[in-house]
Amino acid sequence: MQDSIPDRYEKNPMLVVLENYVLDALGLLEAEKAAKLNEMICRTFGGKDWKQTVRQQFALPADTDATLRQLWKARQEEAEVKQEELVPEDFARVVVDEMFAGLGGAGDEEGD
Predict the structure, then answer these.
(1) Is the residue at 109 inside a domain?
(2) Residue range(s) defining the domain that contains residue 54
(3) Which residue of 30, 61, 88, 106 is surrounded by the most CB atoms within 10 Å?
(4) pLDDT by residue for the chain (112 residues), tens digit each?
(5) How many domains are contained in the chain?
(6) Is residue 92, in this structure, part of any structural domain at all?
(7) What CA–CA distance (Å, rounded) separates 24 from 32?
(8) Is residue 97 left, alpha or beta, with left meaning phi > 0 and alpha meaning psi from -120 to 50?
(9) Cα 25–Cα 30–Cα 34 angle in degrees, nearest 5
(10) CA-to-CA distance for 46 and 85, rounded, in angstroms?
(11) Whole-angstrom distance, CA of residue 30 vs CA of residue 84
C-alpha cells in the first residue's frame, strides 16, 4: 500500500486531509471517508469535528467552506465556457496548492 502513495503525499500527508476538506466542503466526499477522517483527526488533534479542527490547525476562516463552494462554482462555469472537464479531485489539489503553497509538497510539482 505504501508504494501507491504519490510522492506529493509522502512529503506532506496533511495534503490528503486538506484535499478531502475541500471535497467535503463541496459535498463530494464519501461519508465513509469523512467518518475515517473525523476519527483520525480528532484522535490526533482533539475535538469532535474534524473540519473544525482542521480550520483551527490551519487558521482558516469560518467561511472557508462557503468560499470553496463559490470558487468551485466559478471554476465550473469557466470550464463549461472552455468546454473542459473539471474533475473535483484536480480542483481540490489546485486549491490546496494555492492556499498552502508553503506546505511541503504543495505547489512544488517538478516540471511546472
Answers:
(1) no
(2) 2-99
(3) 106
(4) 445 557 888 888 899 999 999 999 999 999 999 999 999 999 999 999 999 999 999 999 999 999 999 999 999 999 999 999 999 999 999 999 998 877 655 554 443 3
(5) 1
(6) yes
(7) 12
(8) alpha
(9) 70
(10) 38
(11) 24
- What pTM was computed for the model? 0.85
Asked if residue 50 is part of any domain, the answer here is yes
Radius of gyration of the chain (CA): 14
Amino acid present at 43: R
User: Three-state SS string across the chain, please?
Assistant: CHHHCCHHHHHCCHHHHHHHHHHHHCCCCCHHHHHHHHHHHHHHHCCCCHHHHHHHHCCCCCCHHHHHHHHHHHHHHHHHHCCCCCCHHHHHHHHHHHHCCCCCCCCCCCCC
Q: What is the pLDDT of residue 2?
A: 47
**C-alpha distance from residue 74 to each of 54, 78, 96 (Å):** 24, 6, 16
> What pLDDT does 105 receive?
56
pLDDT of res. 107:
53
